[in-house]
Amino acid sequence: MDEWKKARAQKRGRGQIVSLDAGDAETRFGREPMDALTPEKLFEQNWALSLLDSVYQRLQREYETDDKGALFDELKFCLTGTRSSVPYAGLAARLNMPENTVKTSVHRLRQRYRELLRAEVAHTVASPSEVEEELRTLFRALAGS
Phi/psi class of residue 38: alpha, beta or left (left: φ > 0; alpha: ψ in -120 to 50)? Predict the structure, then answer.
């Protein structure tokens, strides 16, 4: 009976023949983007991005706690360090604030971000003397070098 069942059983693939073309596979894999980063560099880059996101979230919470969430939303793009396409005069008009007050607010936002970043990095090292080197490592990881 077992032999009869075995002979009548349907096989995987139902009799279809699958062609494995090595040339096609090589061509397909040759078109895949290559990531030159080592696993260690990818880990460092992910760690750096995670750390920056954590600091950003903490800063946002601080502003929201102080009822300045709307101000944070308007100025958060200033944290990138790149020159904004929105001039301070435009921000001042949108926020209904004097231009000098907007400049001061941006300066304080950036300063507080740096303070929080240094504090967060300080939690990851053994001694305060290692903070500067760890910050350099963080920025190297972000630069992808």
Answer: beta
Nearest by Cα to 125 from 140, 111, 135: 135
Q: How many CB atoms lie within 10 A of CB 120?
A: 15
Distance CA 57, CA 72 (A): 11
What pLDDT digit, counting tens, does each position of 107-143 carry?
A: 999 999 999 999 999 998 999 999 999 999 999 988 8
Identify whether the C-beta of residue 25 lies closer than 8 Å to the C-beta of residue 18.
Answer: no
Q: pTM of the full predicted structure?
A: 0.70
What are the tens digits of pLDDT across the range 21-57?
A: 666 666 666 666 666 778 888 888 999 999 999 999 9
Instruction: Classify 14 in phi/psi space as left (phi over 0), alpha (psi -120 to 50) or beta.
Output: left
In angstroms, the CA 80 to CA 36 distance is 26
